[in-house]
Write a structure and sequence with these properties.
There is one protein chain. The protein is α/β, with parallel strands linked by helices. The protein has helices at about 10-20, 25-35, 50-65, 80-95, 110-120, 130-140, 155-160, 165-170, 190-200, 225-240, 250-265; strands at about 40-45, 75, 100-105, 125-130, 150-155, 180-185, 205. The protein has 11 helices and 7 strands. The chain has a 7-stranded parallel beta sheet, sandwiched between helices. It is globular, with a radius of gyration of 20 Å.
Length: about 270
């Protein structure tokens, strides 16, 4: 299967080509036709599977074909990092389209708050928001959800783990009755199924097998206290058996701190 099989506008296809997207991933092959047919969707897929493009592409295509002058799509994501990543992908795909997006996330200083508020007032086709910041903006500013057609909950399990369950339900209450809802989650615990039954209508379901590590990859797990993390990492880094190492960390702040701490040790 190729991206051309989805019949996207030539401008969107040009964006895909420019981003080096040649072949759809399995989640894209499965999800895009369902979204194009207008169904609600629950998709069980992890980061790295191409899940972002799976929902962004059919929505961009639909917006580009419509007479769009109102907020059309709300994407809710658990963290600022994810909201920024989604926004960057949208910017890349829509390089040749007249579609605009705004990321709305917490943290930062008053200037960022003002910039986000101004961007909201000036309007956009797509908002990518973290739940807490969106609710604050909704309380202080007039966000018009009256024309909303698509709601996407990305990494829904993480949002519930972070305690955003009530916030999400409060946001959804503002929406028009008729809209398409897409829920993406790496895992499907009972709480996700409960929220899905409340907010999705006759959803189609997709489940992608969780990826297994390659056979030759040896995995170890160390259970350590916070103050043991750095010495432990240094110990591992000193092991001559490893030629190059990639370290993944939970947030931008932790990554920066680890980098500084490690540099001090060299
Ligand atoms: P995601 O799972 O949405 O976080 O995507 C993981 C990474 O894969 C991102 O950097 C995407 O830009 C990239 N990606 C997703 N789908 C494709 C595709 N069909 N071809 C090439 N790269 C892709």
């Amino acid at each position: 299967m190729n991206f051309t099989d989805f019949g996207f506008t030539s401008e969107l296809q040009n964006g895909l080509d420019a981003m080096g997207f040649n072949k759809p991933t399995p989640i894209q092959e499965m999800a895009i036709p369902i979204i194009q047919d207008g169904h609600d969707l629950i998709a069980c897929a992890q980061t790295g599977t191409g899940k972002t493009a799976a929902y962004v592409l059919p929505i961009l295509d639909r917006i580009a074909r419509s007479d769009h002058s109102h907020l059309n799509t709300l994407i809710i994501a658990p963290t600022r990092e994810l909201a920024q990543q989604i926004d960057q992908q949208i910017e890349g795909f829509s390089y040749f389209l007249q579609v605009s997006s705004i990321p709305i996330y917490g943290g930062g200083d008053g200037m960022i708050w003002e910039q986000q508020k101004r961007a909201l007032r000036e309007g956009a086709d797509i908002i990518i928001a973290t739940p807490g910041r969106l609710l604050s903006m909704m309380a202080s500013d007039d966000v018009n959800f009256g024309y909303l057609q698509h709601l996407i909950l990305d990494e829904a399990d993480r949002m519930l783990d972070m305690g955003f369950y009530d916030d999400i339900l409060r946001i959804i209450k503002m929406f028009p009755a008729k809209h398409q809802t897409l829920l993406f989650s790496a895992t499907m615990p009972q709480k996700i199924q409960t929220i899905a039954s409340k907010i999705l209508k006759h959803p189609k379901q997709i489940s992608l097998a969780t990826s297994q590590p390659a056979e030759k990859i040896h995995q170890e797990f160390y259970f350590v206290n916070m103050d043991q993390k750095l010495p432990m990492t240094i110990d591992i880094l000193k092991n001559p058996a490893y030629e190059s190492i990639i370290i993944f960390s939970s947030s931008k702040e932790n990554t920066k701190k680890l980098n500084t701490d490690l540099k001090k040790q060299v």
